[in-house]
Design brief:
- 0% of the residues lie in helices and 48% in strands.
- With 128 residues, it is an all-beta fold.
- The strands form two sheets. Strands 2, 4, 5, 6, 9, 10 and 11 form a seven-stranded mixed β-sheet that branches. A four-stranded antiparallel β-sheet has the order 1-3-8-7, with no helix packed on it.
């Protein structure tokens, strides 16, 4: 069983930056897909970015060019560097993981159903 623990959320002004971290406790496997999702009040959970064990990253159009997903395998940590934050980025951000590399392909990573392990979330609030 994998446990995911996020940190790094907070409150910033528009144009600011934050770096989210997600530490994975337990073994996810040598091939995997990990992602970041966000959910604003009254909205569905949406995929923001994903990265697989080969290092291939994917991004939602809404954050492309502003957010960067990366991983440090030695530290079992996933990161989401968020720059040029906008008020519409305000949401609870969740880390997700799945041992199936296929969860990352053909756009599957955009959907919460592709992931079997979730963190508890970290709140990001961007004020105008």
């Amino acid at each position: 069983q994998v446990q995911l623990v996020e940190s790094g959320g907070g409150s910033v002004q528009a144009g600011g930056r934050l770096r989210l971290s997600c530490v994975a406790f337990g073994y996810i496997g040598s091939t995997y897909c990990m992602g970041w999702f966000r959910q604003a009040p009254g909205k569905e959970r949406e995929g923001v970015a994903a990265i697989d064990s080969d290092g291939t990253s994917r991004y939602a159009d809404s954050i492309k060019g502003r957010f960067t997903v990366s991983q440090d395998s030695a530290k079992s940590t996933l990161y989401l560097e968020m720059n040029s934050l906008k008020p519409e980025d305000t949401a609870m951000y969740y880390c997700a993981a799945d041992y199936r590399l296929n969860s990352c392909v053909y756009g599957r990573w955009r959907y919460a159903s592709a992931f079997g392990h979730w963190g508890q979330g970290t709140q990001v609030t961007v004020s105008s």
